[in-house]
Amino acid sequence: GIQVEQSPPDLILQEGANSTLRCNFSDSVNNLQWFHQNPWGQLINLFYIPSGTKQNGRLSATTVATERYSLLYISSSQTTDSGVYFCAVVLQGGSEKLVFGKGTKLTVNP
Amino acid sequence: KAGVTQTPRYLIKTRGQQVTLSCSPISGHRSVSWYQQTPGQGLQFLFEYFSETQRNKGNFPGRFSGRQFSNSRSEMNVSTLELGDSALYLCASSSIATGYTEAFFGQGTRLTVV
Prior knowledge:
The complex is a heterodimer.
Chain A: E1 4-7, E2 10-14, E3 19-25, E4 29-37, E5 43-48, E6 52-56, E7 59-64, E8 69-74, E9 83-91, E10 99-100, E11 104-109
Parallel strand pairs in A: 2-11
Antiparallel strand pairs in A: 1-3, 3-8, 4-5, 4-9, 6-7, 7-8, 9-10, 9-11
Chain B: E1 5-7, E2 10-13, E3 19-24, E4 31-38, E5 42-50, E6 53-57, E7 64-68, E8 74-78, E9 87-94, E10 104-105, E11 109-113
Parallel strand pairs in B: 2-11
Antiparallel strand pairs in B: 1-3, 3-8, 4-5, 4-9, 5-6, 7-8, 9-10, 9-11
């Protein structure tokens, strides 16, 4: 089945630093989403980005579908950015389910 | 517009019991999917319902079942609970098929089996 790999698995930053999270996937996809899981477990939508570039405040994302990767950029990080970031994809031509990576655990220290 | 609502938020059950979890999707959304999250296995797909029909099923035993009602609300049931069923169960809704549009998740139901 489709493989989704996220890197790095863990990331520790000082407040104000910038970071880049990466998501590699092994097959063509119809759907790619980035989520932030809050301490209570809810997955918060960050981006729906099967291709192209989007920006939302301090966050931006780029998906290069032909090269099978997506990047999530966090600028001027804040302590509230801490948590686990997940990338999830839906395989093109496969069953319509989100396949999740293992996540990147981000810790932002004050 | 209300988000995806899952009830209950927390549950403690005994081995061998059964449990039913509920999910109300965003108004107008017709697809509801269920996922299980555990520390060891991460986030795994359970099943998806669309217009009251199960369209996809993950690799879980038959003890895990679900259904969707005409108002798109969905329930999942786990019978004969095992300790390993302790997990966060997340429900997602989307307007059409998951593969072609954005999915939105509820707050989850945290199930503890003792």
